[in-house]
Amino acid sequence: MAKQEEEQVELVRLNKFISHNSNYSRREADKIIEEGKISINGDTVTNLSTKVSANDIVRIGKKVIREDKNRMYTVIIYNKPKGELVTKNDPQGRRVIFDSLEKKYKHFMPIGRLDYASEGLILLTDSVDVANKLMHSNLERVYKIKVDGEIHKKVEEAMLHGLELEDASTGGHEKSKIKSMKFEPFIAYQILSNGKNFSKIKVGINEGKNRELRRFFGHFGLEVMDLKRFEFGGISLNNLPTGKSRYLTKDEYKDLRLFLNQND
After folding, report:
1. Is 115 in the active site?
2. Is the pLDDT of residue 260 over 90?
3. Which of 29, 100, 209, 224 holds its CA 20 to 30 A away from the CA of 173?
């Protein structure tokens, strides 16, 4: 029995263990490993490919780094271009985000969706628990949108007070079975430009499922020409190029851990 349990012990890269259980980023963890500041079970290690388990005693100097099971996950940001599907594969052979992401992320789960014609921030994680908590959260999602007409008073009133439609099919996917929809008041909005030919607007909402924004503006006869998500729960694209990915920063992980601990 003891042998069977031993075989099931999960090994993780040392820099990942340190970054998920301390305030060090992975890059900072690599640096202190190379500097000989890390010991495992009393032995100093400098090899960056070293792996550890929860049974190992890892120290930075004299301080023991203890495993926090809520932290043993990885989250990345991907800046999705237009023309990619947020799915593992497509029966029609269209490009999916995993065609662009590195192979080491093949087992990651996307947190939410952006449709084929939309672009911007997608979070992915290797933790089912983290994915579920973030996907079903009311954290703010921030988008920049271009529509083919004017943002008039009725649109603003609906953004401020919400909207309930029996038929919200305009703007929805042609195969969608969802017809009626309730739109909660937007968290915030800012009209960047407003004209008869097209308008640009920045909006903050706390969901964004089922092509919600395309359906909302579609009800007012406004077709969404461009839609880009810039932020999810305070995590931003910043200067991440289209089609590229990055790990969360130390501060982003800290804020995420705080949110997850509050929602246990």
Report:
1. yes
2. no
3. 100
CATH, residue 235: 3.30.2350.10
List pLDDT tens digits, range 45-70: 999 999 998 789 999 999 998 765 55
Which residues, including other chains, have CB under 8 Å from residue 182's CB and lie 6 or more apart?
A: 162, 163, 164, 165
Structural contact between residues 197 and 147, judged by C-beta atoms closer than 8 angstroms: no
Instruction: Let me know if residue 215 belongs to a domain.
Output: yes
Question: 139 and 10, same structural domain?
Answer: no
Spot the catalytic one: 30, 90, 99, 115.
Answer: 115
Q: Give Cβ neighbours of residue 180 (< 8 Å, ≥ 6 apart).
A: 164, 165, 166, 167, 168
Count of structural domains, the chain:
2
Residue of 243, 193, 234 lying closest to 81 (CA atoms): 243
Question: Any bridge partners for residue 109, and if so which?
Answer: 125
Residue 209 placed within a domain: yes
Boundaries of domain holding 228:
75-250
Can you tell me the distance from the alpha carbon of 77 to that of 232, in angstroms, rounded to the nearest whole number? 10
Phi, psi of 257 (to 5 degrees): -60, -40
**Residue 145 predicted with pLDDT over 70:** yes
pLDDT tens-place string over residues 103-136: 989 889 899 889 999 999 999 998 878 888 898 8
**Cβ atoms of residues 219 and 211 within 8 Å:** no
Inside any domain, residue 257: no
